Amino acid sequence: MSAARIVTLEFCSVDADASGFEPVWHKGRRVGFVTSGGYGYTIGKSVALTLLGDEFAGEGTALWVHIVGGVERPARIIPARHTARGQGDAAMRSFGHGR
pLDDT at residue 73 above 60? Predict the structure, then answer.
């Protein structure tokens, strides 16, 4: 794999969560792996942090991840602003931090 980055994936599935080390595929080629994942209660979706090669790390890229016994699940890259951490000040205020 060439240069890589961590991106957030959203799963197009309601019955499976990634937990870590699942392979990530693009057009039949392994292009990365999940570092951690689970259900994102603040956004109501299953998400995962994923290490991908730079050329596959663009927002909206369609990918597949083998989770739950090797079953392929569709996924796409979402911007960081869709997660609690990406909401910045609003997220901090909801936990009593900030103004």
Answer: yes
